[in-house]
Amino acid sequence: MRKSWVLVVVFLWVVLTSVTALGKGTITFWLMPNAPDETHIPWLEEKAKEFEAQTGYKVNFEVIGWGEAWQKISVALASQTGPDVFQVGTTWNPQFAATGGLEKLDLAEFGGADAFMKANYISTTYKGESYGVPWFAETRCLFYNRDMFAKAGVQPPATYDELKVVGKKIVETFGEGSAIAIAGTNAWDLLHNWAIVLWAYGGDLLTPDNKQAAFNGEAGVTAMKWYASLILDGLAAKACAEYNQPQADAAFINGNVAMCFMGPWNIAGIEQENPDLPYDVVEPPAGPVKRASFSGGSNLVILKGSPNKDAAKEWIKFLLSKENLVDYTKNLSHMLPAKIEAFEDPYYDTGVWQVFKKTLGYATAYPPLAVWGDIENAVVREFRNILTAVASGHYSEETVKLYLDKAAEKVNEALARER
Amino acid sequence: MKLTFRVLLGRILFGLAVFLVLAGVLIPYLWMVSGSFKTTLEIQSADVLKPELSPRWFPRKFTWENYLRVNRTVRMLDYFRNSIIISVGTMVFSVGISLFAAYALSRFTFSWKRMYTLAVLSTQMFPGISFLIPYFMMFVLIKHYLGLPMQNTYWGMIFTYTSFALPFSILMLRNFLDSIPREIDEQAQIDGCTPSGALFRVILPLAKPGIAAVGIYSFIMAWNEVLFATVLTGRETKTVALGLLEYITAQQARWAGMMAACILVSIPVLVLFSLMQRYIIEGLVAGATKG
Fold first, then answer.
1. How many whole angstroms separate alpha carbon B87 and alpha carbon A130?
2. Per-residue pLDDT tens for B57-82?
3. Greatest distance between any 2 Cα atoms in chain A
4. Which domains are assigned to chain A?
5. For range B34-41, the mean pLDDT
6. What SS3 class is residue B248?
7. Burial of B284 (C-beta count, 10 Å sphere; 0-12/13-18/19+)
8. For A203, phi and psi rounded to 5 degrees?
9. Alpha carbon of B65 to those of A158, B79, B93: distances in Å?
10. C-alpha closest to that of B215 among B80, B98, B81
11. DSSP 3-state assignment of B74?
């Protein structure tokens, strides 16, 4: 009786080990839900098959929610097991590189640094070395409601000052809070919304050597006051002070407000939720100094401990091939390709895509620092305090400077920890 | 007359209290039901300051779409199957193991018994996150040295959750068994039962409420767990708790779809609860009044 049990266990053991041994020549790929599963998974399955036919490597892909991704990747980096190749947000790339858990890459293998949108290339670097390959990019432009603009008798604004003039006319026609929807305290990406104004006003987040906070200077204070004034002057609804980005988007898509800073992914949302919305897209307005935009998106990175680095590199090259990249960004993720050659596709010369393509051309990325997470959190925390002051009526002329200085202090503390 | 007035008042107040408690507990769920029939756009563009946009219980635009699409944005049905397998597996194993452990603790004396109980209890004192990486490394090492894959497998997850559920299950069941008089075992043995016969034929039927409570506890623990599932599951074993998170992406929050999915996946738990609730209450309070 006992003997037979032992035999069964040994048998199971052998079967299981042989099953796992078959897994050699397989790479594991983690990515985020960049598209709904119903289209995303069949696409990935098809491409994995194609890749296997070409190279003989099997690709085991796994879709990970953004909410769990940080935790899961952190464990993978600490243990050096799990995925061979995976997707990271652009601002995550330097932070993960700083842990020493990512493979250093030579971008020449992937077409050279010049083959990619500059801001996206910078996001892959840490201390001058590349630790990832840009995959797709995002940038935000100014969406406006054509009907509301026509009724108010205004044209899309070219500068931030003009935006306020246009906004006031819209408010006269449609009532308070109807001019623009902006992200508020609940937006995780709050900083992206302000950074573009800051840059346009000639300010910067950090000094050029990335050693000191610089956003609490005169340009920063003016830019922040401009942002707060959208609510204070009644161009944006008071509720905006605590919106998250999707709420601001929804207010625009629903046709309640005339303007909103949104990204290419919202276009799919409009087509699905309110296809009749008469909207158009223009570049973000210019400030007194320049026109600026933010660049985000995702990169592909390789785990340092991966036993299949060559296969992982092949997979990245495969995903970045013009055909696959265009297909993925155009039909699935509704983002922008981070590789310049993909923009040769005629699709990007049509309508709103031209605007996004142009805007991405001068987009700026955040400084690639290991402590970036702490910096962003510190600024956003005080940004939230400013918006709370606006909403609760405690806002005064000194508010902005006070909170920005506080944030700068925390940012400098964080920068001191940067090795 | 006076008495009936008092009784009436008492009943009214009691009813009111029941209503308040129920309202407090159920309103969030009703809101979830209401949200599942709205469009995401309606949920997100709600604005209390504008009457034409203020949140409402009845959807402005009623839609079944969220239910029809439940498996399309996120592979919810696959995750659902995984959750059922893992949770039922955890339930079966933790009931089985904790029954024997609790029986031993309740009926036998052995050396280090106090020490053992304390050790079991002490595992409850550590926050879960502190053994996340150790578990992960253990899985990696098991695979490395024994060739047995643990990560992204059903048995790996059942093993993990059973180990979480066991300490509380053992102690809860021990208390329950303590409340069953020892004389019953002795009588069974006088009538010719072996100790294990007494356990299975006599004690087990008497311990049903306790077993049900332990079963429900371990099922729900496994059903709701997120942190370890994040790291230890993979494409084939992902649970609903993680699937629900996938409705939120970096740029979008598909609330309406999430609400519909929440409702669909909570139905089996609700059914299980309703079937077993009689036992749970009995099981949890058993031993509480023991002198």
1. 43
2. 888 888 888 898 888 888 888 999 99
3. 91
4. 26-139+295-362 (3.40.190.10), 141-292+369-418 (3.40.190.10)
5. 90
6. strand
7. middle
8. -90, 180
9. 40, 20, 39
10. B98
11. coil
Instruction: Find out whether A289 and A200 touch, Cβ atoms under 8 Å.
Output: yes
Q: What are phi and psi of B126, to 5 degrees?
A: -90, 140
d(CA A68, nearest CA chain B) in Å: 6
Under 8 Å between Cβ of A157 and A165: yes
Asked if B21 reaches chain A (Cβ–Cβ under 8 Å), the answer is no
Kindly indicate whether the domain formed by B72-289 is annotated with CATH number 3.30.2350.10: no
Residues B169, B173: Cα–Cα separation, whole Å: 6
Asked if ipTM goes beyond 0.85, one says: no
Q: Which of A345, A79, A373 is nearest to B136 (CA)?
A: A79
Exposed, middle or buried by CB within 10 Å (0-12, 13-18, 19+), for A410?
middle
Q: Is A203 left (phi over 0), alpha (psi -120 to 50) or beta?
A: beta
Contact residues, A window 281-320, toward B, CB-based 8 Å cutoff: none
pLDDT tens, residue by residue, A327-386: 999 999 889 999 999 999 999 988 899 999 999 999 999 999 999 999 999 999 999 999
Tens digit of each residue's pLDDT (9 = 90 or more) over A42-92: 999 999 999 999 999 999 999 888 888 888 899 899 888 889 999 999 999
Residue holding tokens 């080990």? A17
Residues 6+ apart with CB under 8 A from A299: A87, A88, A89, A90, A93, A120, A123, A124, A132, A133, A134, A135, A338
Amino acid at A280: D
pLDDT tens track for B98-141: 999 999 999 888 888 899 999 988 888 888 888 888 888 899 89
Which residue of A254, A257, A261, A335 to mutate against B (max B Cβ within 10 Å)?
Answer: A254
Task: Please judge whether B249 and A274 are an interchain contact, meaning their C-beta atoms are less than 8 angstroms apart.
Answer: no
Helix axes B154-178, B255-285, angle to 10 degrees: 30
Q: Is B7 at the interface with chain A, CB within 8 A? A: no
Domain-wise residue ranges, chain B:
5-65, 72-289
Report yes or no: A30 and A77 within 8 Å, Cβ to Cβ: no
CA distance B187 to B128: 44
Distance between CA atoms of A249 and B33, rounded to whole angstroms? 24
Query: What gap in Å lies between CA A142 and CA A140, rounded to an integer?
Result: 7
User: Which of A68, A71, A329 should one mutate to test binding to chain B, selecting the residue with the greatest count of B CBs within 10 A?
Assistant: A68
